[in-house]
Amino acid sequence: MALLGAHESVAGGLYKAFDRIAKVGGESLQIFTRNQRQWNPASLKQEEIDLYKKAHDNSNGMLVASHASYLINLATAKKDLLEKSINALDLEFERCEQLDIPYVVMHPGSHGGDGVEAGLSRFVAGLDATFEKTESEVLLLLETIAGQGTGLGSTFEELEYIIANSKFPERLGVCVDTCHIFAAGYELRSEEGYGATMDALASTVGIDRVRFFHLNDSKKDLGSRVDRHEHIGEGAIGIDGFKNLLTDDRFKGLPMTLETPKSESLAEDIRNLATLRSLM
Q: What's the count of helices (H) and strands (E) in the chain, helices before strands?
């Protein structure tokens, strides 16, 4: 069975995310280790690290992923932004090492209007420059995106290119977001369509590269290229799409976290997780 969970807030301290995921009955967790809208977060204090690790131990070693800052763009043609992006990703690896977090999830960035080919080439160069700065054992998971604007990573072939051309393929994996791939044009709802999508994934990046899922229904229809998350079963993907995924033995045991809308009570996470478990 998949390890179902959610992205939870770290308001009040990183360790507080474990209280929140326990409240909703999650088995996996995604967090931001820092304010995702700032370039230069304060360094982690030893007290923060100790509290986090104690809470993690109390969770029976729950699998946790960090989501990198949305500011990072390794595909940019702007030298100052590239330098800041490399430093920010390097810092994220450092923070994850301090917290014993095994995965960093990151969007492949934007080509800024220069075209996919140019963007992918720059992304790989920026990625390798970052890897050369650190020997971190943290795995970078390239997240599939919906294809809005000039973003990279809306096709499996684009992710395949990055992995194939990086000098450090052993440090790369993939995070599949259900809303994003559906909006990018990959069918999930029918058995035939789901099978074709997973065949395409297997023949490009490979099933073994997939280490993490984001489970989100989509407010917009197939191929819309619009990234709008919806509660499970209440969007255009619908229940059947998630049933296809959750009964796929190839992904048994993988962490799958919600990124659906929520209130402070977390009632929505509880409801969405219950819906997902009913399909397993």
A: 9, 10
Residue 207: which residues within 8 A CB-CB, separation 6 or more? 198, 201, 250
- CA distances 73 to 3, 47, 169, 278, Å, are 30, 31, 19, 38
* Strand-pair partners of 215: 258
pLDDT tens-digit series, residues 229-260: 999 999 999 999 999 999 999 999 999 999 99
Catalytic residues: 37, 67, 70, 107, 143, 177, 180, 214, 227, 229, 259
Count CB atoms within 10 A of the CB of residue 40: 11
C-alpha 90 chain-centroid distance: 17
- Start-to-end Cα distance in the chain: 7
Instruction: Give residue limits of the domains in the chain.
Output: 3-277
Q: What are residue 53's phi and psi, to 5 degrees? A: -65, -35
Nearest to 265 by CA among 23, 29, 67: 23
Q: Inter-axis angle of helices 79-99 and 46-58, to 10 degrees?
A: 60
Q: Are the CB atoms for 108 and 162 separated by under 8 Å?
A: yes
pLDDT surpassing 90 at residue 37: no
- Close Cβ partners of 271 (under 8 Å, ≥ 6 residues apart): 231
Distance from CA of residue 168 to its chain's centroid? 19
Q: For residues 183 and 220, is the Cβ–Cβ distance under 8 A? A: yes
**What is the reported pTM?**
0.97
Domain spanning 3-277: which CATH class is it, in words?
alpha beta
> What does the pLDDT read at residue 134?
87
- Cα separation, 169 vs 60, in Å, equals 30
